Amino acid sequence: MSATTPADRDLIAGVRRALAAAGDPEIAVKQRAYMKSALPYYGLPAPRLKAELKPLLRDWAPADEAQWAATIRMLWDEATHREEWYAAIAVARHRRARVWLDETSLDLWEHLVSSGAWWDVVDDVATHLVGDVLAAHRAAATPVVRLWATDDDLWLRRTAVICQIGHRADTDLDLLRYAIEANVDDRSFWLRKAIGWALRQHARTDPDWVRAEVSRLGDRLSGLSRREALKQL
Predict the structure, then answer these.
(1) N or C: which end of the chain has fewer CB within 10 A?
(2) What is the C-alpha separation between 16 and 98, in angstroms, rounded?
(3) pTM of the model as a whole
(4) Is pLDDT above 80 for 71?
(5) C-alpha distances in angstroms, 108 versus 73, 95, 100, 210, 226?
(6) Whether residue 153 has pLDDT greater than 50
(7) How many helices (H) and strands (E) are present in the chain, helices listed first?
(8) How many whole angstroms separate alpha carbon 192 and alpha carbon 134?
(9) Is 170:196 a contact under the CB 8 Å cutoff?
(10) At a CB cut-off of 8 Å and minimum separation 6, what does 208 contact?
(11) How confident is the model at residue 184 (pLDDT cuts 50, 70, 90)?
C-alpha cells in the first residue's frame, strides 16, 4: 500500500502526549521486563491505554486510505515506546477504516508482523487485521497467507497459522491444514504453541476434524501442540 498523503501528525502528537502524561514509570519498568522489550514503555496497563486512546480516536476521520496507512506507519516506525505500537494497531482497527481492510493492506500488516516480531503485537495483527482481510477477501488474500506459511520469518509463519482464529464455521480448512503442515516439524515454541492454539480454537466448532488432524499428524505433532489442541475435548 502506497501512502500518497501525509500522516495525521496532529493525531500522532496527541497520542504521544496523552500516553506520556498518563504513564507510570514503575509500571513501565515491569512491563518492559515482562515483555523483554527493546522499546521502553510509558507504563499504561491495557485498560488505561484504551481509555486514553478512546477520546483521541472517537471522532478521528482520516482523509482517505492513504492517510490512514501513513498514520499507522509513522506511529509504528517512529515509536519511542511500545504503547505507540499498540496505538498504531488501534488506528489500524479504527471503525472508519474497515472498508480499507482488503488484500492491498496485507503489505502493511506484513511490515508490522516482521518488524514487531513478538507475540503481543503479532497476535493482535494476525487474529484481527489479517484475519479480517482473509474473512472478507478470501480469494485474494489466501495466496498471500499461503506464502507466509513457508516464509523464512517465523512470525509470518505464526501469523499464517493463527490468522483464522475466530472464523469458526467459515474457517478455510485447507488453508489451516496447509499452514499447520508447513510448520509442524519446526521446534520453535512460538510455532508449536500457535498450532495448538489454532487447533484448540477450531475444536470448539468442529471437534471431529481436530481429532482427525491430531491423529493424522501423529508423532509429528509436538506434545505442546497436542495438549493444546485436545485441551477442551
Answers:
(1) C
(2) 24
(3) 0.95
(4) yes
(5) 8, 18, 12, 32, 33
(6) yes
(7) 14, 0
(8) 22
(9) no
(10) none
(11) very high
